[in-house]
Amino acid sequence: MAVFRERRLPQRNLTIELPIQESTAAAAAGECRQRSALPPLPPFAAPCSGEHRHSDFEKIKVLGHGNDGTVYQVRHRRTGSIYALKTLAADDSISRRQIHREIDVLRRTDSPVVVRFHGVISSASGDVSVLLEYMDAGSLESLLMAGNRRPFPEAAIAGIARRVLLGLSYLHSQQIVHRDIKPSNLLVNTAGEIKIADFGVSKIMRRSLDPCVSYVGTCAYMSPERFDPDSYGGNYDAYAADVWSLGLTVLELHLGHFPLLLPGQRPDWATLMCAICFGEPPKLPETASENFRDFIARCLQKESSNRWSVAELLAHPFVAWDQEEADQAFRELLSLPP
Question: Which CATH number do you get for residue 112?
Answer without folding.
Answer: 3.30.200.20
